[in-house]
Specification:
Blueprint lengths: L1 E9 L7 E23 L11 E2 L1 E6 L13 E14 L3 E8 L2 H13 L19 H4 L9 E14 L1
Parallel strand pairs: 1-2, 2-7, 4-7
Antiparallel strand pairs: 2-3, 4-5, 5-6
């Protein structure tokens, strides 16, 4: 399955900050993700770019080595869509970036310890990670929430 230039709109959980796309009955051999974005529609039109969600958690319910599948989520990867404006309103470049395990742990900690609040723009202390902006740009967007693509099982995935 390929998800290319996908725009998903709907409701986000105010308690968890999660925009869940539940495909738990979908079992895939492979998945290619390329430019997946989410928008929390609260009756706001037109869609505001500063409210787009570029952070995706790819997860599955079953692991390949399970004899008896347990309905429990297994995080596969945190993916951040980097959006670079080349020519305003005309040309934008997108790049998917798989975040490190450490960054994923910080994201999980953020959403477990802080209730989701649109006005809460407190970010994780950037001194804890020593990366360039492309590695930490996701920190500035934590207050927007994240999208979770939850599958039953996925054997392999690639980023476009």
């Amino acid at each position: 399955m390929t998800l290319n230039e996908v725009w998903i709109s709907g409701s986000i959980s105010e308690e968890t900050g999660c925009f869940l796309v539940d495909m738990s009955y979908t079992f895939l051999k492979s998945l290619c993700l390329n430019q997946v974005e989410y928008h929390n529609t609260r009756g706001e039109m037109p869609i505001r770019e500063d409210m787009c969600i570029h952070l995706t958690l790819l997860s599955q319910l079953y692991t390949n080595d399970s004899k008896y599948p347990i309905v429990e989520r297994h995080n596969i990867a945190w993916i951040y869509l980097i959006e670079t404006v080349i020519v305003p309103w005309i040309m934008v470049d997108y790049e998917n970036n798989k975040l490190s395990e450490e960054a994923g742990n910080l994201i999980v900690e953020f959403y477990q310890n802080f209730p989701f609040n649109q006005s809460n723009k407190t970010i994780v202390d950037e001194d804890r990670l020593e990366y360039g902006y492309q590695e930490t740009g996701w920190m500035d967007e934590l207050y927007r929430g994240y999208g979770e693509l939850r599958l039953g099982n996925i054997e392999a995935y690639t980023l476009g």
